[in-house]
């Protein structure tokens, strides 16, 4: 794939991934066929900052975990009111990393 397209994609989407994943994504995108560029450029990634805000506002109900795709954890948080508040507070610190990991998994399925 064109190096300029890849670098532009990395620059515009770097906030959606952990920093140590960016080189892996870059290498895989360079080796990717040009016919898959449309799928890569239109992929819907979750914003970690938005997920943090949702976690702060509605984390006790598990909405943050449902949106990330962790349905089981979302149900657990919903039934226990965010683990009696403790689990909701812990997720304030974890949800951005979880969101970035889920974005990486989505890219791996798309690229690999």
Characterization of the model:
By secondary structure, the chain is an all-alpha fold. The protein has one domain (3-111). 73% of the residues lie in helices and 0% in strands. It contains eight helices and no strands. Helix 1 runs antiparallel to helix 2 and helix 4 (48-58) packs antiparallel against helix 8 (86-111). The model has no long low-confidence stretch (mean pLDDT 93).
The total beta strand count reads 0
Straight-line N-to-C gap: 14 Å
Rg of Cα set: 16 Å
Structural class: mainly alpha
Shape: elongated
Mean pLDDT: 93
Model regions low in confidence, pLDDT < 50 over at least 5 residues = none
Number of domains: 1
Strand content: under 5%
Helix content: over 70%
Report on the biggest sheet.
none
* Helix segment tally: 8
Q: Encode the helix/strand succession as letters.
A: HHHHHHHH
Features:
112 residues; mainly alpha; 8 helices
Short description:
The protein is an all-alpha fold.
Chart the SSEs and their pairings.
Blueprint: H1 3-13, H2 22-31, H3 37-41, H4 48-58, H5 63-68, H6 71-79, H7 81-84, H8 86-111
Helix pairs in contact: 1-2, 4-8
């Amino acid at each position: 794939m064109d190096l300029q397209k890849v670098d532009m994609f990395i620059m515009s989407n770097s906030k959606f991934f952990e920093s140590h994943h960016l080189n892996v994504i870059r290498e895989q995108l360079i080796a990717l066929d040009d016919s898959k560029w449309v799928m890569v450029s239109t992929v819907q990634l979750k914003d970690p900052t938005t997920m943090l805000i949702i976690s702060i506002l509605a984390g006790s109900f598990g909405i943050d975990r449902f949106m990330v795709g962790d349905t089981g954890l979302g149900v657990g948080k919903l039934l226990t009111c965010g683990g009696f508040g403790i689990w909701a507070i812990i997720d304030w610190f974890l949800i951005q990393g979880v969101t970035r990991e889920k974005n990486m998994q989505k890219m791996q399925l798309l690229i690999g």
